[in-house]
Design a protein that fits this description.
2 copies of one chain form a homodimer.
Chain A: H1 15-28, E1 37-38, H2 40-47, H3 51-63, E2 67-70, E3 74-77, H4 82-106, H5 109-123, H6 128-146, H7 149-172, H8 174-193, H9 197-216
Antiparallel strand pairs in A: 1-3, 2-3
Helix pairs in contact in A: 1-3, 2-3, 4-6, 4-7, 4-9, 5-6, 5-8, 6-7, 8-9
Chain A binds a DNA duplex (30 and 30 nucleotides) through helix 3.
Chain lengths: 235, 235
DNA sequence: GATTGTAGTGATGTTAACATTACGACATGG
DNA sequence: CCATGTCGTAATGTTAACATCACTACAATC
């Protein structure tokens, strides 16, 4: 975030980006529940813009997997089934595997410091929603440190869905989440800083497994070896 | 392609999809070289549609990584640098790794038969461009057999770029490409059908390495062990 | 003479009106 | 009473005109 010496390219964003951000935040805030319809006229009226930018924003949210749309049937907020969550888990596992290797191989010390800062912010989180935001921000930092544009884009394609997934998690057990998660990320940073690939990969895997288990019901958070999330029950 | 018993949902596509297909094909045909500008008015005039669908199509192509666009600066055809190719190789390696495991675990016999058919079509390819199309189609079939929506989407996000990459390859050595590649895919199908994970993963890795080596210059196509493409020289 | 200010131009961004489509309600016929 | 056909409505798809922006060339100033 706060780089020193280098100036940000100072890009100017269009209305579509703004609209996409607002709608995304509205979804995460619960204004639009999963399965709800996102009508173009309604959004354009509420945000006081024309339907063009709204259309473009919806297309962008579709790219993020936050929204599904069909021909002449409009856009609806994505509803995550159990197979969806399994897909997210396995794909995220594969992407993170590459990301961690990249970080250990090529990341600068500043990059890892940025990850550390993201982990710091988690401890100041009071609210469940805020904790989720910090969690996502942490992984954002990891992918940023990987210095791999396409990998980062692949992460952004599921990022919002993971956000949605974590949001349902805090409904299940917010107390446990708020307590244990910060420490978990701390150890991730330690492994990353030590450039210990094996340990880091292992920790990231168990980290994902914790989140995954809460929603699937199996509550034995220990007794985890190294099977990874590499499998998806087919439809 | 030709499923029996099940009927296709009979979707109706919009103009934007049509435009995206045309422009994509035009890029692959060399009408628009890498780095060329894609002007909205020019395209809308040539295809006899308004700028709306063109805009939407360009957004779609940007999602596929075939096009890059900046604010008020329009869209240009992506130019692949060496680091881009390295990124594509590593990300594709990771995705294919998951795909192969998924196929071996969950694919039906019909799915593998479809992959087999795709491999068949390669032997009838006479032209370099056609061979590339078959090559891509083969991998499409593999990802389809994986039965993993988000994995398939992640592949589609780099699919066109890989296509572009393979296109530059046939410029380097079309003869060798046309001869050896079909056999290579044959053995991939055999390993998949036998559900032999280790062999399949190995073969897919060397398959990627062949394509990668031709463009990077190192011409020792043998002496390949199992280092995988798991690394990217950072920028 | 190099730098800075300033229009011109050609593109993209945005808007509002028009066309087309899908879905549901209702009526009609078997 | 169920099935089929028709119509209305409310949304999306498409279009063309308008507004804004970035780049270039040129001129004025120091």
């Amino acid at each position: 975030m706060s780089e020193q010496g280098t100036v940000t390219p100072a890009r100017r964003r269009g209305l579509a980006d703004e609209v996409a951000d607002r709608v995304r935040e509205a979804i995460f805030s619960g204004v639009y529940a999963p399965g709800a319809q996102l009508r173009e006229v309604e959004l354009s009226g509420a945000l006081d813009v024309s339907r063009g930018p709204v259309r473009e924003a919806l297309l962008r949210l579709e790219r993020e997997g936050l929204v599904r749309s069909a021909w002449h049937r409009g856009a609806t907020v994505t509803t995550l089934t159990s197979t969806d969550i399994a897909e997210l888990d396995s794909l995220r596992g594969t992407l993170e595997h590459l990301a961690v290797r990249q970080v250990i191989a090529h990341a600068s010390d500043e990059d890892i410091a940025a990850i550390d800062k993201a982990a710091d912010r988690m401890e100041r989180a009071v609210d469940g929603h805020e904790m989720v935001r910090c969690d996502i921000a942490f992984h954002d930092a990891v992918y940023a440190a990987a210095r791999h544009r396409r990998l980062q884009e692949a992460w952004q394609a599921i990022r919002s869905q993971v956000h949605l997934f974590l949001l349902t998690r805090i409904g299940a057990d917010s107390a446990d989440y708020l307590d244990h998660i910060p420490d978990e990320h701390r150890s991730l940073v330690v492994a990353l800083r030590a450039r210990d690939a094996a340990t880091a990969l292992d920790l990231f895997a168990t980290h994902r497994r914790h989140a995954f288990d809460v929603l699937t019901g199996s509550d034995d958070s220990d007794s985890v070896e190294e099977p990874g999330p590499q499998d998806t029950p087919s439809s």
